Amino acid sequence: MSTSAARTPAHAAAPDPKPPEPTPTHPATTPPAAPDPAREPAAPVPDAGSSAAETRRAALAGLPEIDRPTRVSTDDAQTLSVALLARLRELEPGTPAHAYVRNTLVELNLSLVRFAARRFRNRPEQREDIVQVGIIGLIKAIDRFEPERGIEFSAFALPTVVGEMKRFFRDTSWAVRVPRRLQELRIDLARTGDLLEQRHGHRPSRAEVAAHLHLSEERVAEGELAARGYTARSLDVSFSEDDDAPPLVSRRLAAPEPSYELIEDLAALKPLIARLGERDRRILSMRFGQELTQAEIGERLGLSQMHISRLLNRILAELRAGLLADDGPVPPPHPA
Questions:
Q1: Region 196-216: what's the mean pLDDT?
Q2: Is the pLDDT of residue 138 over 90?
Q3: Which of 48, 149, 226, 281 is the most buried (most CB within 10 A)?
């Protein structure tokens, strides 16, 4: 045995073994995490202003862009309208480009609508309503206009705008709805009346108006009757501006009529007189119908004037009692 081995104590511990190396493990397969929307860059949003600008450029196709069409002068509006109307015919209806050009034409020609509305400034309708109706006529004129015919747009659009306004008046202004033929007849009657009055110096008769229009007098009378339904006045309106003045209804209706009371008395007397005898009815007829005196009645009946007076007093007393009786039976006539 060697020396080094002898010197080593028998009880000496063996050196510590090395710690075991960890066994490599493969991680479990997991799905990739969903991207965080907050960390992802946002998709680019198209700019509304740039989109509208592209629509305008595509609609105009090289024509000058108009910032404020309502402030363009009349001459410039006419010149621009010619080019825009030609461009409108090239665009497909319903597209944004077509709508843009059409709206621009409406704004350019609003002065034409206001000019037409001034012709009806004395009408009771609101001016804003008339202008709105005129704009509808302007839109119809824009849609119907054909530039290739060489007609000026204002000359084409003005009758359409005015016609739309007149149609509005015809449909809404009448207080009583009448057929269209009577509405047109009213206009013809008014024009003919003014013409004949200027020509002859007096208001024409119904026969003169009928002869001028080649109509029957019955037809003219029908038109005059229908013309009364154009306007209606309130029953509460007064003839003067004074607030204390009585209204129209108090002047035209509920006027005291004394004949009404007389009619009621006669209607109430009729059954009472029918109950009288033949001689009593004859006496009443001669006294109040023929207005004879008591003496004249006595001569015709062979009675004295005193007897006729007593008979009249009795007859009148019976009639008076019958009128004053509420619901009770009328007393029978006394024998003569």
A1: 90
A2: yes
A3: 226
User: With contact defined as beta carbons under 8 Å apart, do 232 and 176 qualify?
Assistant: yes
Residues whose CB is less than 8 angstroms from the CB of residue 14 and which lie 6 or more positions away in sequence, other chains included: none
15 in helix, strand or coil? coil
Two structure tokens written together for 259: 């004949």
> Is 232 in contact with 173 (CB distance < 8 Å)?
no
User: What one-character DSSP code corresponds to residue 119?
Assistant: G
Q: What average pLDDT score do residues 189-203 get?
A: 89
Give the C-alpha separation, 120 to 123, whole Å.
6
* pTM of the predicted protein model: 0.45
What's the CA gap between 65 and 273, in Å, rounded?
98
| pLDDT given at position 4 | 42
Residues 298 and 327: beta-carbon distance below 8 Å: no
Residue 279 near residue 332, CB atoms below 8 Å: no
Q: Which residue has the tokens 């363009």?
A: 72
CA angle 287, 290, 293 (to 5 degrees): 45
Give me the pLDDT at residue 63, please: 75
Q: Evaluate the CA torsion angle 168, 173, 176, 182 in order and state its sign.
A: negative
Q: What is the mean pLDDT of residues 177-204?
A: 87
DSSP H helical segments within the chain, as ranges? Answer: 3-7, 48-60, 74-90, 96-108, 110-117, 127-144, 153-172, 180-200, 206-213, 217-227, 248-252, 258-274, 278-284, 294-301, 305-324
Tokens of residue 156, six digits: 């084409």
Average pLDDT over residues 99-128: 88
| pLDDT confidence bin for 140, thresholds 50/70/90 | very high
Residue with tokens 């024509």: 63
Find out whether 87 and 61 touch, Cβ atoms under 8 Å.
yes
Residue located via tokens 């709508």: 99
Reduced to 3 states (helix: H, G, I; strand: E, B; else coil), residue 247 is strand
Distance CA 59, CA 85 (A): 12
For the chain, how many residues are written? Answer: 336
